[in-house]
């Protein structure tokens, strides 16, 4: 009978059970390949695999973050072809659990990045790397309060409801606003991580709320759409806007004042440390169950400083 890797496994036992089969493909599967954020994860993963003789890396993801079934298929296909390990950014905290369980039963180690699986799936992977999304949401909320004060109206432009990162990021932003101010929250609105959808939603929100004081775009495509809507409506710089993630579009919005700030995750680090963590597992080393990859608030005042430049992409 196939030996299962238990939740309390020692990593050395994993190494012994996999033996020579450790060498081979590491599958990095993200929420979508159509995003600069995830392409930066790819760069980090590629940097980690560079120079490896025993391992190769593949990078894949569905066409959009809402294509959850496609991502499930990618994980199942990786398991079926017998990859050495999987680095996965799950698009849904529940839907990916059966596929990750299949990897567990096949003795394929899994490192989760960016968004957590729900508690019922926690025994099927070995390490979780992410931004502390709750802390990031609180940081953005504090910045918003510093920009508009403790009264007013703020809209929340979110991405995919129920995703682990969204629950922490947007949920803790809202709770912090409610705890520290009398600001009225409008939304959240869900763009499904589609820039065009976020642009249209933001345009509608701005038209329906002429007294809006602030607005938060909670991930890269959402924040870009939000920023473009602010520019097109003539409200850039008038409505205090904060984004999330750090591609060139968002950097430009910070520099020209469309955004008061953008919270930037260590996307390169997620890919790099994710693959490094998997390589450690395959070599029999113990790894932390959780690794915080950090967040930096980029503003016009600090965007050219090294600590901020290191996380921009």
Automatic annotation (TrEMBL):
Keyword set, alphabetical order: Signal
Record carries keyword Kinase: no
Pfam families: Peripla_BP_4
Superkingdom of the source species: Bacteria
Signal peptide limits: 1-23
Coiled-coil annotated residue ranges, if any: none
Keyword Cell cycle tagged: no
Annotated SUPFAM superfamilies: Periplasmic binding protein-like I
InterPro entries attached to this UniProt entry: Peripla_BP_I, SBP_2_dom
Primary location group: other
Gene3D superfamilies: 3.40.50.2300
Record-annotated Periplasmic binding protein domain positions: 26-285
Localization per record: Cell envelope
Family the UniProt entry places it in: Belongs to the bacterial solute-binding protein 2 family.
PANTHER family assigned to the protein according to its UniProt record, in alphabetical order: D-ALLOSE-BINDING PERIPLASMIC PROTEIN-RELATED (PTHR46847)
Protein name: ABC transporter substrate-binding protein
Organism of origin: Roseibium litorale
